[in-house]
Amino acid sequence: MRRVPVGLVATALLLPSTLAVMGTAILGPVLPDLFKHFADTPHVDYLAPLVLTMPSICIALFSTLAGFVGDKIGRRRFLLVALTAYGFVGVAPMALDSLVVILVSRFVLGLTEAVILTMSTTMIVDYFKGPEREKWLAYQTALAAISAVVFSLLGGMFGGLGWRGPFIAYSSSLLMFLLVWLFTHKPDSSDISHNLKPVRDTSWRSVLTPRLIGICAISGFASVIFFTLPIDLGMALHAVGLRNPAAIGGVMAVSTLGIAAGTLLFRVLASRPPATILAMAFGLAGVGFVTISHVDDFRLMAGAAFVNQVGCGIALPTLLTWSMRDLPFEARGRSMGIFQSSFAAGQFFSAIAITAAAHAAGGVLPGFQILGAITLGAALLASIAHWAIKPKADSLTAT
């Protein structure tokens, strides 16, 4: 079988993960125009925002099913079908003039995103092992964070063509289809023997182990932390007097770079037990939240947000690697789907978390202090867990 350079294989599998980010980020700048165009549509105040959030809801609901189907019919084949469908369904709103029909297309787009995100990540786990696997999973996190900034800028540029303009970017999935088709292949025994456990029971009962359920619960919590600042940092900046949209965007871009920095730190820390790494990750995120709640200068707030996002950048690849460790090849798709569902559910609840905390504390900045205290509590629990396990046996690179 023809061998493809590792970098090309990794690139082909990393790029599709950005499509889930694009699904929301690229439309943010044109949401006001969407409201205006469909102003006469009943309940537009509720329906228009769903154009952005519908795909994320689908990822939460259908990633587990996507993983199950991928395990049955083949991950590469399923990924190629989803990339093709994403391109055509993604650009469909350019020719549609019914908000309800557009929402139907966004629902279908969300189904393809669930497949793409689950299959591409599972295939990274299939193709790579040990430090190499950790490297590419970390790069996936960094790429998703950076692409969110890029897509927001592109959304503004394409928005100059009207609210339909940004939808043209969804056709990029067809280029990704070409990369996956050219540079990947269905793994055979020679590819996966190094990380394949003896075949055993792969029923749902065997996949839904207490270990995986626990990791997914932690991942849901980590996702709330991960998405709180991208959604709510603007409110905190407003509270300290920064009102210029461009300046707010700049601060948010700086904080997002912290995720990339965190993924680099993860690569240094990956030989340590997961509990140790998560204690550090949640500690940094919690310190960032608490600091945001106590500063009154947007520059200090930008620094605190950067620290928070460094912690988030450490946490996500840690949980990804931990959840996939020691799983038999035949069950990885389902396991990754369960993980992605829990993480996407956390994204949904992150929009509610700061609102609930702000109501409880009497303001957005005190609300961040509550989130910080909870996150620091999670760091303390992770530290305690470190002493309750055998570090060498439970390190991420143990297998």
Main sheet overview: none
**CATH structural architecture of the largest domain:** Up-down Bundle
Q: Kindly report the name of the CATH homologous superfamily of the largest domain.
A: MFS general substrate transporter like domains
* Radius of gyration based on Cα positions: 21 Å
Q: State the helix count.
A: 16
Taken together, the total number of domains comes to 2
Amino- and carboxy-terminal Cα gap: 27 Å
Number of extended strands: 0
Mean of residue pLDDT? Answer: 83
| Low-confidence parts | 193-199
Note the beta-strand portion. under 5%
* Quaternary organisation: single chain
CATH class of the largest domain: Mainly Alpha
CATH topology of the largest domain: Growth Hormone, Chain: A
- Overall form: globular
Which structural class fits the helix and strand makeup?
Answer: mainly alpha
In helices, the fraction of residues equals over 70%
> Strand-and-helix sequence, N→C?
HHHHHHHHHHHHHHHH
